[in-house]
């Protein structure tokens, strides 16, 4: 259903990841409702003082930068996109927000959906998260499908105490980079539609519409 769109080398894919670093971090920061402009995001990433940005926004962006660069280095070192990387990403992006950064939640959390309802699911153990990820990989026909469906499932299940969307998106990119399948980037302009479809998925547990949206609008690579 979702054939891979690109067949890049790891070197090519990591080159691409570095080229879109600023845009990726800017877009990921929208999950935390950061108010920075793209230019301000770039200035913060480059270590410049941005007096008009809030401390919270600056910290969110710097944590995302650290996690994104860690993923690139991790893959560059030939290490796999696995459970350990997933937890490390969350440890970095949610270190100021989570009760236990990098650890799967053991208590109840809820998410408010577009219609005002609350989405709450039981906590999952490490073994249950591993089984969920294995099942998705087994039933997917491509790396892109695995990445998209893993990302969406991790978001819906709220496996961590906080930072689930940022963590899941970065991990999906790690899965794709590892296999040379390009980049998954939800542009700021696409975020409202994505969030609406994601909210519908939370209610229905049917990811087909939001997965198709991501596949059609949010995958990029190097075209020769």
TrEMBL record:
It comes from the Bacteria. It holds the Pfam family Fic. Residues 81-216 form the Fido domain. This is Fido domain-containing protein. The lineage of its organism: Bacteria, Pseudomonadati, Pseudomonadota, Betaproteobacteria, Neisseriales.
